[in-house]
Design goal:
The chain is of the alpha+beta class. It has 6 helices and 12 strands. The chain is globular, with a radius of gyration of 18 Å.
């Protein structure tokens, strides 16, 4: 029981955004799709169609991403937590989110499955990769941007060399109130999220490498080796 406790406590930090799964072939944004988002957005929420199209194209141009991250979370009571590590992603829907501080944990996704590895407790939990699976940042960067943006009002602000896109749900959402994506000199640098319960999350990216070769082995955990090393394998992907 003790082994599972920390893992379950960590999951809410990751399963935060409902993301459509990326199709087998990458599609460009069709204007009618973003027009649909504009028409379904309440008049009280501003939506910049051009900003949405621009953001979708930027996101879809990221075929591979490698970076270090620092994720800071704060709940409504003001308690904070910082996690650091590295991430890699590769379209379609392959990613690795490796936390190295303050504890060790890896989340890997490929071929419709999600592996959560906890080296400290020697445990691997396997789940089905559904529409709410995976770390917020990598799901946003590896999912279908055009489909995702249909559900949100998008605005853009310039701050010198930094461009910030803000996403707000077009209808009541229990996931988040706003999400910001920061680009510095056309390179993604920060993602911030404010959830409906008053919690805040900020992910800072450093050492970003775009569209460079990424080893496929990063997305293929060797379960036989892990089992030999004493890991418990818990397969919930068929449940």
């Amino acid at each position: 029981m003790m082994k599972i406790t920390r893992l379950l406590a960590v999951l809410p930090l990751f399963f935060a955004i409902s993301m459509p799964v990326w199709p087998a072939e990458q599609e460009l944004v069709h204007p009618s799709m973003l027009a649909k988002a504009e028409s379904s957005t309440p008049a009280s929420i501003k939506h910049d169609k051009r900003a949405a199209e621009e953001l979708a194209k930027k996101l879809q141009a990221m075929n591979t991403v490698s970076a270090n991250f620092s994720q800071s979370t704060m709940d409504k009571s003001g308690r904070s937590k910082v996690e650091k590590g590295s991430m890699q992603l590769k379209r379609p829907n392959q990613f690795r989110w490796n936390i190295t501080s303050p504890f060790n944990q890896e989340i890997i996704a490929k071929d419709g499955k999600l592996w959560m590895l906890d080296p400290d407790f020697k445990q691997v939990v396997i789940k089905k990769q559904d529409n709410q699976s995976g770390p917020t940042a990598v799901q946003l960067l590896s999912g279908d941007a055009s489909e995702f943006l249909m559900e949100y009002a998008v605005t853009r602000m310039n701050y010198g060399p930094e461009v910030v896109y803000t996403l707000r749900p077009g209808k009541a959402s229990d996931l988040f109130e706003s999400l910001e994506i920061h680009f510095s000199s056309d390179e993604i640098s920060v993602i911030t999220i404010v959830d409906s319960l008053g919690g805040k999350r900020r992910i800072d990216f450093t050492g970003v490498n775009l569209n460079q070769p990424v080893d496929n082995k990063l997305f293929e955990p060797d379960l036989q080796q892990l089992e030999k090393a004493g890991f418990d394998i818990i397969d919930e992907s068929r449940v």
